[in-house]
Design brief:
Blueprint lengths: L8 H9 L7 H15 L6 E7 L17 H4 L4 E3 L6 E3 L3 H4 L5 E7 L6 H10 L21 H8 L9 E4 L24 E6 L4 E4 L10 H16 L6 H17 L2 H6 L7 H7 L13 H5 L5 H14 L3 E6 L13 H26 L6 E6 L3 E2 L11 E2 L3 E7 L7 E2 L1 E2 L6 E3 L4 H11 L7 E3 L5 E3 L15
Parallel strand pairs: 1-8, 1-9, 4-13, 5-6, 5-8
Antiparallel strand pairs: 2-3, 4-12, 6-7, 9-12, 10-11, 14-15, 16-17
Helix pairs in contact: 5-14, 12-13
Length: 469
């Protein structure tokens, strides 16, 4: 397990005094109290959020409308799944076989029609302070993402890596302000894991030793530096804050567990192939630099890394599927060609593999998998054979973590345009994740000037889970 038991109240005091978290000492005490209270109530040990940036079409995946007019129903046919009465797209045959372990929410909705604002609401459960707009210039993040909020509330547990994300922070121009700690401070940003597509290798930030040095030799140099620093009084908050991050980096640098988790050579080729291993020289014929930058050959392997991180004890993992507009699920043109030939086959293979793999390893009951985009697509097909942005109603999948498999919650109208029953907000989804971790969604956290904020204004979707869970 990537977890230490050495974080004490004294260490919390030093961290607060150093200003490393951008919060008051009382805020850290509250976080510790909440973590201790909720530890026994936790219903899951981990959550994997797979985020399909660009907006998958709900009408062509998990909420098909075969009786709708042709300009709504599109080209794809529904097929039966392993869950009685639950139909999915014909281009999701592997997912069809595991739907008895999956719940579909068909009534998710919000009001953000642009990628960045919609992503912000889905990943934080809050409307962006900037409103419904794209972020083409850097702006600070205000509300923390769900994983960062959990990291803050779990601080007393002493987890080395409470929250990780891979293989990049998504966006083509600037990082969308919804993937980090926000007002909680950068100490609660996720550990960023990147992928080298050509080498087929993953790395955690810059946590590799300098060329020609081993981890042991680096640790020897650190101890020498500590001796020298002990002769100097680090009295400024900046120095103490720097030392806090420095010590954390060294802790991770020497983590054999983390290095093993990121080493795919430990997996059999059969397992890697099950997730979808693509050759570097051709990704459906696309050898462009943009395809390599997107990490497309490693889309399936990203989910395999997520499973390995869960096994290693990382409780919250975000996997971002694509990052650039126009080269992802944002199918304004040729929607059916791209879904049929590229988008759905890889997703079908990798997501079903993750669910089956977690189940076979006895991890599915304790791991909640959430698969979602920032919105769905328009019911009406446009003049370019595409579908445009549609946040008014779309689908999200949940698997594991006590989910009632084969369950469908909520419904859309006959055109898939608006919720007909049981509308669900992004806040409801975040509340559900918190609740499954044993965290009360009404828990308050405080920003840098002490203002209280509930971690979620939503309601957990308890109906998705068994009565005894």
């Amino acid at each position: 397990m990537i977890e230490t038991l050495t974080h004490t109240r004294r260490q919390l005091l030093r961290a607060s005094a150093g200003g490393g978290f951008g919060l008051s000492l009382s805020g850290l005490w509250r976080a510790q109290a909440v973590a201790e209270t909720n530890a026994a109530a936790a219903k899951i040990r981990a959550c994997v959020v797979v985020f399909y940036y660009g907006g998958p079409s709900h009408l062509d995946t998990y909420d098909l409308k075969p009786n709708a007019p042709a300009d709504v129903r599109g080209e794809f046919q529904p097929i039966a799944s392993s869950a009685p009465g639950v139909m999915v797209s014909e281009h999701l045959p592997r997912m069809a076989k595991v739907m008895h372990k999956v719940a579909v929410v068909r009534s998710v909705n919000h009001q953000n029609r642009l990628h960045d604002s919609a992503s912000t609401e889905m990943l934080t459960g809050r409307q962006s302070p900037q409103g419904d707009r794209e972020e083409f210039a850097p702006i600070p993040q205000f509300y923390p993402c769900v994983g960062s909020t959990c990291s803050y509330l779990w601080h007393a547990r002493g987890l080395d890596v409470p929250h990780a994300q891979l293989p990049f922070m998504f966006h083509n121009v600037v990082d969308v302000p919804c993937q980090g700690g926000g007002f909680l401070g950068s100490a609660f940003d996720p550990l960023q894991i990147s992928v080298d597509v050509e080498k087929r290798a993953y790395r955690a930030g810059s946590l590799t030793p300098p060329d020609g040095r081993t981890f042991a030799s680096v640790d020897d140099r650190r101890r020498l530096l500590s001796v020298l620093e002990s002769e100097l009084a680090a009295n400024t908050s900046a120095e103490r804050r720097w030392r806090l991050f420095y010590d954390k980096a060294y802790s991770l640098l020497g983590s054999e567990t983390l290095r093993r988790a990121l080493d795919l050579s430990a997996e059999t080729q059969a397992t890697r192939d099950r997730y979808g291993f693509k050759p570097a020289e051709a990704i459906n014929g696309d050898t462009s630099q943009s395809a390599m930058a997107e990490g497309r050959p490693m889309r399936g392997q990203n989910l395999l890394i997520a499973r390995r991180l869960v096994e290693a004890g990382v409780p919250f993992v975000n996997v971002f599927d694509f990052r650039q507009q126009g080269q992802n699920w944002d199918a304004h043109a040729n929607n059916f060609f791209h879904h049929k030939n590229y988008l759905l086959p890889q997703t079908d293979q990798s997501l079903s593999a993750l669910i089956e793999d977690l189940d076979q390893r006895g991890l599915l009951d304790s791991t909640l998998v959430v698969a979602m985009g920032e919105f769905g697509r328009t019911p009406r097909i446009n003049a370019n054979a595409g579908r445009d942005h549609w946040p008014d109603c779309y689908s999200v999948l949940l698997a594991g973590g006590g989910v009632k498999g084969g369950c469908v919650y909520g419904s859309s109208d006959r055109l898939g345009a608006y919720p007909e029953t049981n509308p669900v907000s992004p806040a409801d989804l975040t509340a559900t994740i918190f609740w499954r971790f044993g965290i009360d969604p009404m828990t308050e956290i405080h920003d840098a000037i002490g203002r209280p904020h509930r971690i979620s204004d939503g309601r957990p979707i308890r109906e998705l889970f068994g009565a005894t869970i």
